[in-house]
Amino acid sequence: MMIANSIYSARRRRGLTLAQLASATDLDKGYLSRVERGQKSPSISTLLKIAEALDVQVGQLFGEKTGEDAILVVRRDEHIDMKSDEQPGMGLLQAILPASNRRRLSLFMIEPGQEVNSRAADHPGDETVYVLSGTLVIDFPDRSVELREGDCVHFDGHLRHDIRQVGRAKARALVIIAQDLSTRVAD
User: What is the reported pLDDT for 173?
Assistant: First the structure.
């Protein structure tokens, strides 16, 4: 009965009728009604179709709960300032979500300075920069890319790059780096 209740609840949360769910899954409306009432036991392939149409994980249909360690919340006062006094023109660099052995993604907030950093960055993985405010330029060895508020760029982190502010308005951006866990050195 747990699966039946889970399907019914998920369908109602999505605001779908049985007919809409039947159409999305290519299943008979009457069959789905019997599944929701616990009169029929769906096959795994049917559960996969239903879960996809309801945009839920199959485990949720079985009553699976999210583990405590599956969700990480980092509060504002837990961000780690990484600005170095050795690089006064660098601006703000703050680790919001550092990568770890279990997490391939890291997230940084930057307010780049106007000067070009003498040590351009390069690292394994992919990098995405999303500009929250102002204008910034990312200098690559053979070109520069200017980004304004709302712009985003994605590139291979192995490309040497430097980020700097352009203009008077303070630039602020999110930098997201994703690395392959299998190649990461232990913390």
Answer: 94
